[in-house]
Structures are given as structure tokens and as C-alpha cells.
Write a structure and sequence with these properties.
Layout (H helix, E strand, L loop, with lengths): L4 E6 L4 H12 L4 E8 L7 E4 L2 E7 L10 E4 L3 H13 L3 E4 L28 E3 L3 H16 L4 E8 L6 H15 L18 E2 L11 H14 L5 E8 L6 E8 L6 H10 L3 E3 L11 H4 L5 E8 L6 E8 L3 H17 L14
Parallel strand pairs: 1-2, 1-5, 2-4, 5-6, 6-7, 8-10, 12-13
Antiparallel strand pairs: 3-4, 8-11, 9-10, 11-14, 13-14
Helix pairs in contact: 1-8, 3-5, 3-8
């Protein structure tokens, strides 16, 4: 396995934190010790890793001593506070929040797209937004064959994007509606069960919400095409886990559907799901728990000779967050960009 590393997870009790713990074990990441960190509200809970019950500690000034790698998924304000302290203590931080994504000094990485950017970090690496990751994994191999001139995306985002409590709220809302009672709204501003609404992040002066602009700006940075023409509409839908996206791509010349299908069949992190006779294409229920982004319904845009239409579904918690972060960590290990630990866990 080579050198092992001392890892901390900041935000260990959230939905993404739980997935990070599971993935480190599932993918046999070289962990010598694992420290679980969260807010005082969650401290004292336990989580299991490699058969051992680990206590969740409160994040503090001394929490990052003797840590080589921090996987952070606790929100932007938390990352702004603690990521610099972790770096100062000698750790590399892979941050799942939006805090550093557009910082020009911080690499923003989807390993299937721009793995070499990992060498440019100065202590912090940003994990892109979930919808950005899913879209980029699918669009990049096509963009490599023929540069995308314009991209139009519509998202169908599950409750999981708002965390574990949001997923639970949708279940409660659904039961309330079935019972004829008013659905409670604590996490979401409106009922999501048996309903949908445009993404509720803040709107800018042009009428685009924060979530939509994340996809635009982050894709431009990851693809290194700062003027790429992209427009997005993000919608929250009553699905528990896994996001879906309808994507329209415009190229400078026609892109054969058969060629696009062949490219995506071979693309890393992608699985082609198409049964045209059965009208069976990617669905969130199939994407949940999967590492790959499912893509299908690839077809010629009948409104534009140089256009392609496609549909995808991907697990927001997994590839859209935790898996992408762990894959970035694996890049750091492969390229020997992490300090090796000197002490190993008793269970290791």
C-alpha cells in the first residue's frame, strides 16, 4: 500500500462526512489514523471505521496537529475559519464547500478532467459543486474531441444536496401530504414532496441564482475556458438522492451521435445507459450509490445542426461530493504530495 497518512474529516457527522468515512475504507485509502471533527452540537457521537468506533471531537485550534490530510465538508464559513489553520499546522485541505472554489490560487479539480492541477496547490484544493462535477465528467471527453461552443444545462436536484436533514424532511412532508396534513418546511423554504421549485439560492441582478452561477464559473475554471458560453437553470425536485441534468451542447460543426456514444462508453467515471426500445435511460434511483455518472438519451439537437442533447444522473453525495474529494486525495498520494505518517493505527 505504501506510505500511510494521518487523515481528519471536518464535518464528519453530515451526509457527505458519512460517505467520506465509508469511501476511505471501501477504497482502501492508506490511513494511519483517522480523526473525526464536527461542531460542538455533534461532538461526542461515534462513527465506525475499519471496525473501530471513533469518537467525534470538537474542531479546535489544536485539532489539526499531527494531521496530513483534511477532508472538509462543513460549509463555507467553517472552511474559511479552519482551513488556513489546518494548512498552517502542515496539512493539505480538500474543501467541499464553495469557500475557495473561485480563488485563483486554489486548484478546482475533477480528477477525470484536470488531475494535473493537483500539483499547483498551496495547501488548499477545492472540490467543485455537485452539479458541476457530474456535468464536467460527461462533457469533458466530448469537449476534448471537439471544443464546446455553448452549453445549456437544466438540473433536477435531489434533497440530498441540502444534506441529511433535508432528505428526512422530504420523507416527513410526503407522509404529511398523504395524511392530508400541511407539510412542514424547516430546511426548505417550500414543500418539496409532490412539488418542485427553482433552486432557492440567492438571485443575482441578472436573475441567475448562486447554484446556477457556480456551474457556469466553476466549469470555465476547470476547463480553462474563461469565456465559455454557459447558461443554467437549477431546479429542486422531490428525489431523495442523486441529481439529474439535461444538457444541450453546441459545437462548431456536427458531432455524430454514434461518435459521442462511443466516446462516452470509454470515458472514465461514466456509464452509458440507453435502451431505446424500452425508453430506459439514466434515473436517480439507479445512480444512487454508484460511483459512475450515468449518461444516455444522446441525440441530435433537431433545432441546430451542430447540437447534441444528452441526459445524466449521478449520486450527489458520492461522485458529486465525497468520492470526488477522495479521488483528489488519491491523486495526492500517487504523486507523493502528502507527508507520510510516522505512527500507524493499532487496527491498521
Amino acid at each position: 500500500m505504501g506510505q500511510a497518512h494521518r487523515v481528519a474529516i471536518l464535518g464528519a457527522t453530515g451526509a457527505v462526512g458519512a460517505e467520506l468515512i465509508a469511501l476511505l475504507e471501501e477504497r482502501d485509502f492508506p490511513v494511519s489514523s483517522l480523526k473525526l471533527l464536527a461542531s460542538p452540537r455533534s461532538a461526542g457521537q461515534t462513527r465506525t471505521f475499519q471496525g473501530e468506533a471513533l469518537k467525534v471531537d470538537v474542531v479546535s485550534e489544536t485539532a489539526f496537529q499531527d494531521v496530513d490530510l483534511v477532508l472538509a465538508s462543513a460549509g463555507g464559513s467553517v472552511s474559511k475559519t479552519w482551513a488556513p489553520k489546518a494548512v498552517k499546522a502542515g496539512a493539505v485541505v480538500i474543501d467541499n464547500s464553495s469557500a475557495y472554489r473561485m480563488d485563483p490560487k486554489v486548484p478546482l479539480i475533477v480528477p477525470e478532467v484536470n488531475p494535473d492541477a493537483v500539483t499547483q496547490h498551496q495547501g488548499i484544493i477545492a472540490n467543485p459543486n455537485c452539479t458541476t462535477i457530474l456535468m464536467n465528467v460527461v462533457v469533458w471527453p466530448l469537449h476534448q474531441r471537439q471544443p464546446v461552443q455553448r452549453m445549456i444545462a437544466s438540473t433536477y436536484q435531489s434533497a440530498s444536496g441540502a444534506g441529511a436533514r433535508a432528505m428526512e424532511e422530504v420523507k416527513i412532508q410526503a407522509q404529511a401530504v398523504l395524511n392530508g396534513d400541511p407539510p412542514p418546511t424547516e430546511i426548505f423554504p417550500y414543500p418539496l414532496a409532490f412539488n418542485l421549485f427553482p433552486h432557492n439560492s440567492d438571485l443575482n441582478s441578472q436573475g441567475y441564482c448562486t447554484e446556477e452561477m457556480k456551474m457556469v464559473q466553476e466549469t470555465r475554471k476547470i476547463f480553462s475556458v474563461p469565456d465559455m458560453r454557459i447558461s443554467v437553470t437549477c431546479v429542486r425536485v422531490p428525489v431523495l438522492r442523486a441529481h439529474s441534468e439535461a444538457i444541450n451542447l453546441e459545437f462548431t460543426q456536427p458531432f455524430e451521435v454514434a461518435q459521442a456514444r462511443s466516446i462516452l462508453q470509454q470515458a472514465p467515471g461514466v456509464k452509458l445507459v440507453e435502451d431505446w426500445q424500452a425508453n430506459y435511460f439514466p434515473m436517480p434511483i439507479d445512480a444512487s450509490g454508484r460511483d459512475e455518472v450515468l449518461v444516455g438519451r444522446i441525440r441530435q439537437d433537431i433545432s441546430h445542426a451542430n447540437g447534441l442533447e444528452l441526459w445524466l444522473s449521478g449520486d450527489q453525495i458520492r461522485k458529486g461530493a465525497a468520492l470526488n474529494a477522495v479521488q483528489i486525495a488519491e491523486l495526492l498520494v500517487e504523486r507523493q504530495l502528502l507527508k507520510p505518517a510516522t505512527v500507524t493505527m493499532a487496527s491498521a
